[in-house]
Amino acid sequence: MARQFFVGGNFKMNGTKESVKKIIGYLNDSDLPAQVEVVIAPPALYLGLAVEVNTQKTVAIAAQNVFDKDAGAFTGEICPAQVKDLGATWTLTGHSERRTIIKESDEFVANKTKFALEQGLSVILCIGETLEERKAGITLDVCARQLDAASKIISDWTNIVVAYEPVWAIGTGLAATPDDAQETHKAIRAHLATTIGEKQAAEVRILYGGSVNGKNAKEFKDKADVDGFLVGGASLKPEFVDIIKSRL
Ligand code: PGA
């Protein structure tokens, strides 16, 4: 079964009511290919607005993060049920900015992922190594460790998309080369085959993230294990549409 091309847009902590409407307007005004699944993640405050203004059937809305528990005394957190209440259907978990700045552990990320799935959200689970880890030659060990925390407690990966985002490539303008991304994606898939089984590993989509833009997206076109992208900075601009169309 061919894996459907997937493009995620992570707005991070950017935007206002006006700019979120404008960015979604770029998508609304475009002739998006029906075969590409698109998911955009505005800041949580604008999830409801994004759901309201989006007119594209192939575009779904995601939170950037959720908590691993339901309603209760958890000041400042948001739960999957609230994300769903606003009409969003996805969440990111484990983005490197949360792992490094907010110090989220592999276990916490895995617990959030499991809880979000149980609550009916689909999840973009982000993994990836830092520059130091890459230099030390432990890229795959790091990715495996981050994935294993999740596969230990989650057996059904149908509603998970994995995003491989090397930390050194995020927001730096220094994207991984298509060959490097392919090599790592292939190794990630091979590792997943040993933990979640060959069938699920063959079906799970693995996105590349880190300085993807309207120009370089096309260069990944023939990379068999690169099933799409998770885009930060460029998802705020009209060129996001070029990335969505990069496989045509
Ligand atoms: P970038 O971010 O495209 O701005 O490098 C990617 C991400 O963090 O998801």
Automatic annotation (TrEMBL):
One of its GO terms (biological process) is glycolytic process. Its EC number is 5.3.1.1. Keywords: Gluconeogenesis, Glycolysis, Isomerase. GO terms for cellular component: cytosol. It holds the Pfam family TIM. It catalyses: D-glyceraldehyde 3-phosphate = dihydroxyacetone phosphate. Signal peptide: none annotated. The keyword Isomerase applies. It comes from the Eukaryota. The keyword Isomerase applies. Pathway: Carbohydrate biosynthesis; gluconeogenesis; Carbohydrate degradation; glycolysis; D-glyceraldehyde 3-phosphate from glycerone phosphate: step 1/1. PROSITE patterns: TIM_1, TIM_2. GO terms for molecular function: triose-phosphate isomerase activity. NCBIfam families: tim (TIGR00419). Homodimer. Belongs to the triosephosphate isomerase family. This is Triosephosphate isomerase. It comes from [Candida] railenensis. The lineage of its organism: Eukaryota, Fungi, Dikarya, Ascomycota, Saccharomycotina. The gene is TPI1.
